Fold this sequence. Notes:
Blueprint: E1 4-7, E2 10-13, E3 19-21, E4 50-52, E5 56-57, E6 64-65, E7 70-71, E8 75-76, E9 83-87, E10 90-94, E11 99-101
Amino acid sequence: MENTYPDGDNYVCADCGHEWPMQANAEADDDGERVIKDANGNVLSNGDSVVLIKDLKVKGSSITLKVGTKIKGIRLVDGDHEVDCKTDAGNIMLKACYLRKA
């Protein structure tokens, strides 16, 4: 939005009142790489198998990924949706907060 302003260590949206930190709180390991954790706080890595903890509607289609669906061989990427994977519905990018390590 255009109506944001800094307030201390946060940005504030004047329209909705949402606040977020100016500095991203991305965790990093010793090598400087980003650490991605699942919903339970377990560290994810490339090739792991994960399970969905919530029904997820696939944007732009009528497909719903059901809770308990096991996804094998994930790939971690940068961005808002950290997990790239293959499902029955095709290649999909998911947020780690909706997954748990299997």
